[in-house]
Specification:
heteropentamer; A mainly alpha (about 220); B alpha/beta (about 190); C mainly alpha (about 240); A: about 220 residues; about 85% helix; C: about 240 residues; mainly alpha; globular; binds protoporphyrin IX containing FE; binds adenosine-5'-triphosphate; binds magnesium ion
C-alpha cells in the first residue's frame, strides 16, 4: 500500500497547498505581470519597437526573480516548523522530496508566468508567431531557475544572511539558462540550436539540483 | 517480550560549535522498555535524541537502531496553515496508512479543533496533533522530546497510557523529561 | 600520492620542504616568462605590444578553471572518504582561486579595450561564464563563513563545489558553442598548439610558474589551517576536561 | 531615562540587524543589481539603445519587487516569534515602531539600490546627466514602495494567502508612485512636474501608511 | 502590602472563530498575589492572558490593569539570529534600562549560551532568555503563559523564587499552568 510514490504524492499535494496558501505563489506572476505590463510601456514611451524588443528580457528577469523569491522561504520554513525532520526520518530520500516540492512550486509560480507570457506579448505588441516558442522557453528556463533557486535555498536554510547567500549561490547557475533562453526567444530561426542547449541546461538542473538539495537539507537538519 | 534490543549505542559523543556536549554515552533500549533522558537545560538531550533519530550525523561512537522511528521534537511539525485534520491526512497519505483519521482526532481530543489552522490552535492542541501521527502507523521506536510539555492533565495521562501500551506491544521509547513525569522508566540517563 | 598525503602529519612533513621549493621554482619561471614577454618576444603582428598581456592572462585564465577543478575534486574526496585534509585543501584553494579569477577578468578586460574596443561585452559567453566563476568562488567562501560549525561548513561547501563543476566545461567550450569575441583555443587543441614557438615557450613556462606559485600558496595556507585546527582541538579538549 | 525615543531607537537598530542578518536586506539590491546587470544585457542583446531605454523600467520593477519581498516576511516573522507581542505591550504606538522598522529596511534594501543605480546606468550605457535625477527618484519612489509594501505586509501577517493579499493590497498603491517615478526619470526637462507628484505621493505614503500599519498590527496580535 | 488590586475584571468573555471560549469571567488580583489559571488544552488560558495584557481587544466585560505589564507567552520573543545577550541588550535599550546584562545572564544560567544565536539554543535556554527580560525593568504585573515549560528543575526553582520575590515586593502574577507547579497560588481559576 505504501509504495515508493505515496510519500512523493503527499509531499506534492502539501507543497501545492502551501504555495497556494502562502500566496507568494500567484502573487509573483500576477505582480510581475501587472507591473511589467503597466510600467514598461510608460517608461519606454510609445516606441513599440523598443517595447517589443525589451519585453522578453523583462520577462526573463521576472522569471529569475520570481523563482529566487519563491524558493527563499520554502526550506527554511520546513526547517523551522519541524516538518523537515519528519521527512528526514522517513525512507524516501530527501532529494526526491525536494524535487517534488520544487516542481509543485514551479507549477504554482512558474507555470502561470509561462501562460501569461503570450498575453504580455499581446500587450507589448510582440509578433504572434513568437509566442509559442517564447512560452516553451519560459517554461523550460523557469524550471531550471526554480531548481537552482531551490538548491541555493536549501544550502542557505537556517543560516545567517541566508538571502544574500541564495542570490550569490544561485546566480552562477542561472546564467547559462538565461543566456540560452534569451537567445532562443530572440532568435530569428524557428528551432535555433540554442533551444537544444536551453533544454539541455534544464535537464541538467533537473538531474543534478535535486541531489544537491537533498544533501543540503540533510545538512540543515543536522 | 523477547527483550532483544531496539537501540544500541556505544561511545556516542556530540559537539555543538566549539562546545563538547557529551562524550562516550552508551545506552541500550530493549523491546518493551522506556528510557528517560534527564539533564539540565542545554545539556544535550535534544541533541542525543536527534542523533538516535539519524537527524544528526554521528561523529563519534556507534549507533544501531533496529526499526522504524516515530519522532516528536520540540517543534510540532505542523505547517502554519495546516489544520489537525489535514496534518494527519497528509502524513497518512505519505506513510500509506489507512487509519481512520476521525477516530484519531476523537481519541486525541481534537474534535472541536479539527478544522482550525495551526496558527489558531492552542499549544496543547498542536502537541496533540503531533501525537496523532503516532497513531497512523505502528513503528517500534518512539523518540520523544519533552512529550508532556503543553499538555493538560488529561493529555498527559492519555500520552502516558499510549506509551505504556506501545511498550506492552514490544516497542521501545526514549523520552527527555524535566521534573516529575507520569512514566515508569526502565532506565534513566542523566546528561 | 594523494592518499599518502592524506595523513596531515605526512602532509606537514612534505609541505615543509615543498613550499620553499615551489616558491623558488615559481619565482624563477615567472621571472623568465615576464622577461621574455616584455623585452624579448617581438610585438604581435596585428595587436602590437598589447598582446604581451597574454603572459598574465592565459596563465591566470587556465588557473581559474584548474583551481576550481581542484577544489571540486578535493570536495569530492572529502565528501566520500572524509579526509579532513581534502576539506582543508578545498577551503584554502577558494580565496586563491578567486584572486586568480579576478586577475583573469582584469587582464582580459584590459586586453579587450585596445583589441575589441570594449572593456566588457555582456553577451560574450566566455566573459560571462568567467565572471560566474568568480561568483562561485565568492559564494563558496560566503557559504562556508555562514555556517556555525566546521563540519557544516565542510559539508555545505563540498556540495556547492561539486555541483558548480559544470561551470568548468561551460567556460572551456563557450567559445565553440557561441559566436563570441573571444578567440577559440589555440593551446589545448586536438591538433596541437597553433601558436608560434617564440610565444609558446615563455607562455608554457609562465603557466607552469603560476601553477607552482599557486600550489605553494595553497600549501602554505593549508599549513596555517592545520595548525589552527590543532589549536582549536586542544582548546576544546581543555574545555571538555579531557 | 526611558524617553519616547529609546524604544524607537532600539527598534531601529534591531530592524537594521535583522535586515542585515536575514540577508534579504543586501540580497535584494545586490541580487537585483547583479541579476539585472547580467541578465538585462544578455537578454537584450548588444543594441545599446534598447538597453538604455529599458534600464529605468527594469530598475523600477526591481525596486517594487525588492520592497514587496523584503516587507512580506517582516511582520509575519515578528508575529510568529512573539516579538510583536512585546512591542504591543509597551506604550510606544505600534505605528511608530512600524514606521521605524520600515525605514530601517528601506535603508538596508532600498537605499543601496538608489546608490547602485548610477553604476547600473554606467554599465547599461545611460547618459550621465540622467543619474542624479534618477537616483533621487529611486530614493523617493523606493521609500513610498516600502511603506505601502509594509502596509500590505502588516495587513497580511498571520493571514492565509498572505502573499497574494500583499500583492493585491500594495499594488494599487504602487501604481501612482511608479508612474510618476518612471515619468520623472525619462522626462527630458530637468525638473518635470511629475517630480513634484512623485514627491507628493511619497509624502502621502509616509503620512498615511504608518497609521495603517499600526492598526493592522494591532489586529494581527489580537 | 496594602492589598489594593492590580487587576480587576468583570464579565470578561472571549470568542475564537465561531467558538465561545468563556463568558462572564471575573477575577481580581491584588498586590502580592499569585493567580493560577488552569484548564484543559484549548480552554482559553492563553486567550485570557492575552486579554489581560491588552493584546486582544475586549469584546465583552470590563478590564482594569493598574500598572505596567511583563509578558511571557508561548513564544519566547527571540528573533532567529539573536543571541541571549543581544536579546537582553535590545530590550534594555528599548526600555531604557541600565541593568547589568552580564549579571542577568549569570543569574539565569546563560553564561555558556550567551553568544549562541537563538536557532542553536536549547528550548530551556530560549525560555531563560525570555525570563531575563523580567530582570531588566521592574513592572508590577507579570503575565506568564506556562512559565515552567521547557525549564529544568533548577530553572523551575529559580523562576518560582523570582515570582515569590516579585510578590513580596508587591507585584501581582497571573500564570497558566498544567499539572503540579512549584507555586503557592493565592487564587486559582479554572477555565
Ligand atoms: C574579460 C575578458 C576576458 C575573459 C573573462 C577571458 C577569459 C578567458 C579564459 C577563461 C580563458 C581560458 C580558457 C580555457 O581554459 O580553455 C582564456 C584564454 C585565452 N584568452 Fe581570454 N578572456 C578575456 C579577454 C581576452 C582578450 C581580450 C584576448 C585577446 C584578444 C584573450 C585571449 C585569450 C587567449 C589567447 C587565450 C588562450 C586560449 C587557449 O589557448 O585556449 N582573452 N580567456
Ligand atoms: N554554535 C554553538 N556554539 C556553542 N554552543 C552551541 C552552539 N549551538 C548549540 N550550542 C549548545 O548546544 C546545546 C544544545 O543542547 P540541546 O538542545 O541538546 O539541550 P537540551 O538538553 O535539549 O536542553 P533543553 O532541556 O533546554 O531542551 C545548548 O547548550 C547550546 O547552547
Ligand atoms: N478560527 C477558530 N475557530 C474555532 N476555534 C478557534 C479558532 N481559532 C482558535 N480557536 C480555538 O480557540 C482556542 C484557543 O485557546 P487558547 O490558546 O487560549 O487555549 P489554552 O487554554 O491556552 O490551551 P493550552 O493549554 O493548549 O495552551 C482553542 O481551543 C482553539 O481551537
Ligand atoms: Mg531540548
Ligand atoms: Mg495556551
Amino acid at each position: 500500500m505504501t509504495g515508493r510514490a505515496a510519500p512523493l504524492r503527499a509531499a506534492f499535494y502539501q507543497a501545492l497547498g502551501e504555495a497556494w496558501a502562502g500566496g507568494a505563489g500567484v502573487l509573483l506572476p500576477a505582480g510581475f505581470f501587472a507591473g511589467a505590463a503597466t510600467l514598461v510601456p510608460i517608461t519606454f514611451g510609445p516606441e513599440t519597437a523598443i517595447l517589443a524588443a525589451a519585453a522578453p528580457a523583462v520577462l526573463w528577469i521576472a522569471l529569475a526573480l520570481a523563482s529566487l523569491v519563491t524558493m527563499e522561504r520554502l526550506f527554511q520554513a520546513d526547517l523551522e516548523d519541524g516538518a523537515l525532520d519528519l521527512w528526514a526520518i522517513g525512507e524516501t530520500p530527501l532529494s526526491q522530496i525536494a524535487l517534488v516540492k520544487t516542481f509543485a512550486h514551479w507549477i504554482v509560480s512558474g507555470l502561470p508566468l509561462m501562460i501569461l507570457a503570450p498575453f504580455l506579448g499581446l500587450i507589448l505588441g510582440i509578433e504572434a508567431s513568437y509566442w509559442p516558442r517564447a512560452a516553451v522557453s519560459y517554461g523550460l528556463g523557469g524550471l531550471a531557475f526554480f531548481f537552482w533557486g531551490g538548491f541555493g535555498a536549501s544550502l542557505a536554510a537556517g543560516v545567517r544572511r541566508g538571502g544574500l547567500l541564495i542570490a550569490l549561490i544561485a546566480l552562477p547557475f542561472y546564467v547559462p539558462t538565461a543566456i540560452f533562453g534569451a537567445l532562443t526567444v530572440t532568435s530569428t530561426v524557428a528551432m535555433p540550436p540554442e533551444a537544444y542547449l536551453l533544454a539541455a541546461s534544464t535537464l541538467f538542473a533537473l538531474a543534478v539540483a535535486p541531489f544537491g538539495m537533498g544533501a543540503a537539507l540533510r545538512l540543515g537538519v543536522g | 517480550m523477547t527483550g532483544h534490543s531496539l537501540i544500541e549505542t556505544s561511545g556516542l559523543g556530540a559537539m555543538r560549535g566549539d562546545r563538547v556536549l557529551f562524550t562516550n554515552k552508551s545506552l541500550t533500549v530493549d523491546t518493551g522498555e522506556i528510557c528517560l533522558l534527564r539533564g539540565a537545560n542545554g545539556s544535550g538531550k535534544t541533541t542525543l535524541l536527534r542523533l538516535l533519530a539519524g537527524l544528526i550525523p554521528i561523529e563519534a561512537g556507534k549507533l544501531n537502531v533496529n526499526g522504524a522511528v516515530h519522532w516528536l521534537g520540540h517543534a510540532d511539525g505542523l505547517k502554519p496553515h495546516e489544520t489537525p485534520r489535514r496534518h494527519l491526512m497528509h502524513w497518512a497519505r505519505a506513510w500509506g496508512s489507512d487509519v481512520d483519521i476521525d477516530a484519531v482526532l476523537v481519541r486525541y481530543g481534537l474534535v472541536l479543533a479539527a478544522d482550525v489552522p495551526a496558527t489558531g490552535l492552542s499549544a496543547g492542541q498542536r502537541r496533540r496533533s503531533a501525537f496523532g501521527r503516532f497513531a497512523l502507523e505502528d513503528r517500534p521506536v518512539w523518540l520523544l522530546d519533552e512529550p508532556f510539555s503543553a499538555l493538560d492533565d488529561d493529555g498527559q495521562t492519555l500520552i502516558a497510557e499510549q506509551i505504556s501500551a506501545h511498550c506492552a506491544r514490544g516497542g521501545a521509547v526514549v523520552a527527555s523529561v524535566h521534573g516529575v513525569s507520569p512514566l515508569q522508566p526502565d532506565r534513566e540517563i542523566t546528561l | 600520492m594523494i592518499s599518502y598525503l592524506a595523513n596531515p602529519y605526512r602532509f606537514m612533513a612534505f609541505s615543509r620542504y615543498a613550499v620553499p621549493i615551489c616558491f623558488a621554482a615559481a619565482g624563477l619561471m615567472i621571472a623568465f616568462s615576464v622577461w621574455q614577454g616584455l623585452w624579448v618576444v617581438p610585438p604581435e603582428r596585428v595587436q602590437g605590444d598589447s598582446a604581451r598581456i597574454l603572459f598574465v592572462h592565459v596563465p591566470s585564465a587556465i588557473l581559474t578553471s584548474a583551481s576550481y577543478s581542484a577544489m571540486a575534486m578535493a570536495s569530492f574526496i572529502w565528501f566520500v572518504w572524509r579526509h579532513e585534509l581534502a576539506d582543508i585543501a578545498a577551503k584554502c584553494i577558494a580565496p586563491l582561486g578567486a584572486i586568480y579569477t579576478a586577475l583573469c577578468l582584469a587582464s582580459g578586460s584590459i586586453w579587450g579595450k585596445p583589441t575589441w574596443g570594449t572593456w566588457w561585452q555582456w553577451d560574450d559567453a566566455r566573459m560571462v561564464s568567467s565572471l560566474m566563476m568568480l561568483f562561485l568562488f565568492l559564494g563558496y567562501m560566503a557559504l562556508r563563513a555562514a555556517m556555525d560549525t566546521r563540519q557544516k561548513a565542510a559539508r555545505a561547501g563540498a556540495i556547492l563545489a561539486m555541483v558548480g563543476i559544470i561551470n568548468v566545461p561551460l567556460i572551456r567550450f563557450s567559445v565553440d558553442w557561441f559566436t563570441s569575441l573571444h578567440q577559440g583555443p589555440s593551446l589545448l587543441r586536438v591538433d596541437g598548439p597553433s601558436m608560434s614557438a617564440e610565444y609558446l615557450t615563455p607562455l608554457l613556462v609562465g603557466i607552469a610558474g603560476h601553477a607552482l606559485l599557486f600550489s605553494a600558496l595553497v600549501f602554505l595556507s593549508m599549513r596555517t589551517e592545520i595548525l589552527e585546527r590543532r589549536a582549536a582541538r586542544a582548546r576544546a579538549a581543555v574545555l571538555a576536561g579531557v
